[in-house]
Each structure stands twice: as C-alpha cells, then as structure tokens.
Design brief:
Blueprint (H helix, E strand, L loop, with lengths): L4 E6 L11 H5 L8 E6 L3 H8 L5 H8 L6 E4 L3 E8 L12 E8 L2 E6 L4 H12 L7 H33 L8 H31 L7 H67 L14 H22 L4
Parallel strand pairs: 2-6
Antiparallel strand pairs: 1-2, 3-4, 4-5, 5-6
Helix pairs in contact: 4-5, 5-6, 5-7, 6-7
Length: about 325
C-alpha cells in the first residue's frame, strides 16, 4: 500500500491476519472482521483517509496532531488514547519517546505515529503469525499497553546497570570524566519522568472507565499494567536519586583531591618562604654582607638552610600537618 499506510490488517474473521490492499480497504465492512489501520500521520494520503473516515472532530484532530500528551478520552463510539513508547530506532536516544495515537471502536481501530515503534511492530507480527490471537479492540489496547510498559521496564533496568557501572568507576583515575556521564543520566531520568507520569494517569483513567469495550478480564490486565508502570516510575525516581548521590560523591571526592593538592602546595610554600627570605636578604648587592671574604661561607650557608628545612619538617610533624 501507499507509504502513508504502515499496516492495514484484519484481526478477526475468516481472513484474520490478512493485509488489505487499498481497494480492499475501501470495500471493508464491519462484517468482514475487526480492522486495524496504522498510518503515518504526516503523509498526505494518510491525512486525507483519516479526514474521510467520518470520525468525530476531536478524534480526527488528535490522530493528526504533531504533538500530543499521554491521555485517555472515552466517547459513546470508542476510546481515544495518546501514548508514548521507548524510542528503539537506530541512532536515537531512548528518552526521545515516540508518540502514538489510537482510536478504538468495536469494529475498527485507527492508529497513527510518525516514527517506528517496536511494540506496534510486535503486535503486527502477532496478528499475522497468530490469527485471532487479538480478537477485540479492548484486547488490542491492552496488549499494546503491556508491550509499551515492558519496554519501559527494560529501559529502567538498563539505566540501573549503567548507574552501577558509573558507581564502580568513581574510584578509578578516570573519575574526572564521569561528571558528564552522570549529568546525562540524570537528564534522561528527568525527561522520562515527564512522559511516564501522564501515561500512568491515562491508564488510571482507562482503568476507572466502565466503557462497553472492556470486560472484567481486560480491567484486571489494565490494573496490572498500571501497577507495573507505577513501579517503573518509582524505580526511575530511585535511579534519579542514586544518580544525585553519585554526583555528590564524585564532587566531594574531586574537592577532597583538590584540597589535598592545595594543602601540599601550601606546605611547600611554607618550607621555602624562610629560605627565600634568607637568600633574598643575603643577595642584596650592598656592602656589609657577612661572609663575603670567607671561602667556606657559602657551604656553611647551604648547611644552615638544610638544618632550617629539617627543623621545619620536624615542627610540621609535631603539629600533625604532615
């Protein structure tokens, strides 16, 4: 089909798992089975098809919107959801989440996105390889939410492993380079938290909705998904807090190292301060400098400086400055 149409599949009926052509899509009737159309919302043909699909204005605007916030909206005809999934596309940051919109009716599901979403691909493969395994709109929504949440759990586990690695590197000589890595990790957690919380609220609203599409089994699965997402957010907060502690520990260690270097330089300055004073005083080019006519005067002066250094070191040791 046209590039604006990513998937066009029948989920139920005798032709379950079949991908429809453009002409078959135009001739589709509810009796043919549950239809799922997944489109790239920025493509002109996909936009025209959605406009001609005779949907309510709110649903049409949301399916075609460039930016959406995770939310759930119920109507007598169906359920509109805006969700976000982890970005697993090559050369992409996971926290740059992919937005997806779904409008689910009893006999038809319309979804849109711009970038590829692995969870959507998994569901399409399940529909094709296991016909009738997803046999209702509610089943589709619940299965999609489960996969999106599983990807979030995997990402949190990866962040935890990354943070463990950073913790182990604090005592290494290359610890100075960790500040950027820890700051980037904290930035990821803040960005993810921004999208996870509204999605939790969307699932909570879906759980409390007594829509005709959902039976008790679907609500039980949604409750489990919501509990998992709450735990994911708690783990994300824990990663953020641990990253803050790690960053503070790194800063404290670097400050301690800097203080040790400054302390050492201060001791060196204290040692050479009287030596510099004496050599400067005896180096004045005027008459009356003692020892100018004595051959061994310079050797005696150097020996005196050595004795002075020894006395200073002994004093520092007694005062526990060393």
């Amino acid at each position: 089909m046209d590039t604006g149409f990513i998937y066009c599949l029948l989920l139920t009926g005798s032709n379950a798992g079949k991908s429809l052509s453009a002409s078959e899509l135009e001739q589709w009737q509810p009796n043919d089975g549950l239809l799922w159309v997944h489109l790239r919302y920025s493509h002109p043909d996909a936009q025209q098809w959605i406009i001609n699909a005779q949907l309510p204005q709110t649903e049409t605007d949301t399916l075609l919107a460039e930016h959406t916030r995770p939310r759930t909206l119920s109507s007598p005809d169906g359920i509109l959801m805006a969700l976000r999934g982890i970005n697993l596309n090559p050369n992409s940051a996971p926290e740059d989440m992919v937005s997806m919109r779904i409008y689910a009716q009893q006999h038809r599901i319309i979804s849109t996105c711009e970038r590829q979403l692995q969870s959507v691909k998994d569901i399409a493969e399940q529909i094709i390889n296991q016909p009738n395994s997803i046999n209702s709109s509610a089943n589709f929504l619940v299965s999609l939410c489960e996969r999106l949440t599983e990807r979030k759990m995997e990402l949190i586990h990866n962040l935890e492993d990354e943070l463990d690695t950073l913790d182990d590197q604090i005592t290494l000589p290359s610890a100075a380079t960790l500040r950027v890595d820890i700051a980037e990790l904290r930035k990821q957690t803040v960005t993810l938290r921004r999208y996870f919380s509204p999605q939790r609220d969307a699932l909570s609203r879906l759980l409390n909705d007594s829509h005709f599409l959902f039976d008790n089994e679907h609500k039980l699965r949604i409750r489990e998904i919501n509990e998992t997402l709450i735990r994911v957010i708690e783990d994300l907060d824990a990663v953020r807090d641990r990253a803050s502690v790690t960053q503070e520990q790194l800063q404290s260690q670097q400050s301690e190292q800097l203080n040790k270097r400054l302390y050492f330089l201060s001791l060196i300055s204290a040692v050479f301060l009287p030596l510099g004073f004496l050599t400067g005083l005896l180096g004045v080019n005027i008459g009356g400098i003692p020892g100018t006519d004595i051959p061994w005067a310079f050797s005696a002066f150097c020996a005196g400086l050595i004795v002075l250094i020894a006395l200073q070191m002994w004093l520092f040791y007694r005062l526990k400055w060393l």
